[in-house]
């Protein structure tokens, strides 16, 4: 696929739009025969035959040979040529960046995890991010013309439709997506990081046909992703899912949103960090106690999670308390949404049972019995890859929506 075809789609050329429909159908339904395709898309067999012929020649579609059927005619099976188009995903963390490349079929072809990067909400931070992405593209051996879209996950308030980011990298009048498109010389879309994780888990993780999903992202902050009837729910401006900023506590802790008493101040990665430091200061011990005094190298959330997994009692206790607090609030979400599945994701979910058990106990205690019986509570299957897989899958879905 090339930029010319994308331009034709944008201009609304009838032929290009028909081809886009065929490609979209193949992306979400897999290979099929011409008779099946004509039925699905409601076009005559000669029309579909003509388009498939052209698209085979152009290299978008492959002829996968005769389909084995019981007796009668054996129609040929056609499907996407995985190498005719590629998509890039970018997932920004506090201390690193993950960048991945998928092919047309959604298989991860190239993945660079934990590229060193110190997130800073500054022009320099944005410049450095662009460098890293350009460097990744530069090293790819594929034809760069075939990169159809890049999606960047950004945390905070993001409007995926308009391309504006309101919390991070918001330095110009125009949308961040436009700024990045210019800098990276490829089409760029942006989306909220939690929503991307949710979509990644939905497409490639633990979801197996369930259509109503809540994804709880417990990382430095706290957010949720919502899927209703198989569609990601954005809200009017893309600001849905701000679970962490529900006013829950009568405390004096200022949240990074500027208000106080937010759920996030007591139940999130940043809360875990604060509570850990306070308890060490009050004389409690931990295998990480020596690190608490190293001012130049602050303890990361990953270290706290690793300590819990190495059976550090203080870290386990804090994780459990956070799980109880969260579970009580998730019980409320379950009452409202009646989801098929609640996925516990984000950095703190890497403590597995230490966080999921108290969440499950609190949900049983505080949600309506009949309602919570419907919902499976499970931990993320993609774990730290949820964001990057989601970024890549969104890069594709934004071009070829189901
Ligand atoms: Zn807040």
Secondary structure elements and their pairing?
Blueprint: H1 3-11, H2 14-29, E1 32-33, H3 34-41, H4 45-58, E2 61-66, E3 76-80, E4 86-92, E5 96-103, E6 108-116, H5 123-139, E7 147-154, E8 158-159, E9 164-165, H6 176-184, E10 188-192, H7 193-204, E11 213-218, E12 222-228, E13 231-232, H8 269-281, H9 301-309, H10 313-337, E14 341-345, H11 353-366, H12 369-372, E15 376-379, H13 386-399
Helix pairs in contact: 1-2, 3-4, 7-13, 8-10, 9-10, 10-11
Bound molecules: zinc ion (ZN).
List keywords for this structure.
single chain, 402 residues, Arc Repressor Mutant, subunit A, Nucleotidyltransferase, domain 5, 3 domains, five-stranded mixed beta sheet, 13 helices, 19% strand, binds zinc ion
Bound ligands, each once: zinc ion
Q: Please tell me the total number of domains.
A: 3
Shape: globular
**Largest sheet data:** 5 strands, mixed
CATH architecture of the largest domain: 2-Layer Sandwich
Task: State the end-to-end distance.
Answer: 19 Å
CATH class of the largest domain: Alpha Beta
In CATH, the topology of the largest domain is named Nucleotidyltransferase, domain 5
Biggest sheet strand line-up: 6-5-4-7-10
Q: In percent terms, what proportion of residues is strand? A: 15-25%
